[in-house]
Amino acid sequence: MRSFADASKTVRCCDATDGTELRTMAEIPMKDSRTLIAEMQDEIEKVIGPHLEGVEKFALVDFPNHSNVGDSAIWLGEETYLQKKLGRAPSYVCTYDTWSKEEFERAVPAGPILIHGGGNFGDLWPSHQEFRLRLLSEFPDRQIIQLPQTIHFSSTASLKRAAEIINSHKKFRILVRDVQSLNIATKEFTAPVDLCPDMAFCLGAQRSPAAITRKLLLLLRTDHEKVEQKRFPPLPNFAVVEDWLIEQRGLGKWLFVKALLETALLVLKGRTPSELDVRIRWFHLLASNRVARGMRQVGSSAYVITDRLHTHIFCVLLNVPHSVLDNNYGKISTFVDAWSKPFEKLGRPLSTSVDDALANFLDICQGSSAPPDRG
Prior knowledge:
Layout: H1 33-48, E1 59-61, H2 69-86, E2 92-94, H3 101-107, E3 113-115, E4 118-122, H4 126-138, E5 144-152, H5 156-166, E6 172-176, H6 179-188, E7 193-195, E8 216-219, E9 239-242, H7 251-264, H8 275-299, E10 304-306, H9 309-318, E11 322-324, H10 331-340, H11 354-365
Parallel strand pairs: 1-2, 1-3, 3-5, 4-5, 5-6, 6-7, 8-9, 8-10, 10-11
Helix pairs in contact: 2-8, 7-8, 8-9, 9-10
């Protein structure tokens, strides 16, 4: 019977920048969620902290104004870390399509530009990549830090163009979430590169906001990063299949009104709120709402099978037993390999298909009337 600690099969683990196979999962000591989260937070501070010393004003740009919970978790984690580190919110925020050079320069006459992390560094999500390259071109002498990203280029021409712009910048630093991205960046770019965990870990250990009502949740991608299944296996009648892209209609407008009302209270502190004050608060409310929705979705499930990286991270934050599959270019396995493979409630060996993950779940539950609890 398989179990969370069962690592009798060899799984390759790349713990070095050159991809050297160092240890199998059988040789890696297992860790509980709180220990693992604390280690991730310590590593984030170790990597990012030195580059923010003495910073007063800064911009945090490329807010993910869409319903994908994972990107909002990164944003909220970034806010949480920066508030703790610098004692203040960003002086300027924007989405990729609401950027204003003039507004930014008024708000941050001196100070770094921090670009939101995630998985859009490359040519898979071109709008975000074009915004990144635009910032580098417009501010060749400004400190710009790319918060932890996964890098993926499918086009050699796109990679070459990005390298030309990046390599002409004097103060660009790239943080990446996995060794594969690290290898690409160190080979192609002259900018300094650091390996760093995903910023969603800065949210810390979470208590589930929902009672467990689902025995098995398959939270699977429905966007263009999904892996096409030749066939979908028969599922137990208690299994639920969902993605996490659907949100309440009109949510953005309702939260914008709420942001207006909340920032109006600044008058009581003797300050007239600006349009930027409202936007900063609105983005925070949007991200918080989306993260809370994802926490309820994952937290209400006794066991999760997923091909979304941040569902995996939520399972760590919530201490939920789960199995992971890869997306279509290896984003999850490379992240797990770099950071989260010791999590004691991650199903082993790592799954290669829904069939495999389902077999793992049923194997674990064999002889029990309920899936493993959260302990």
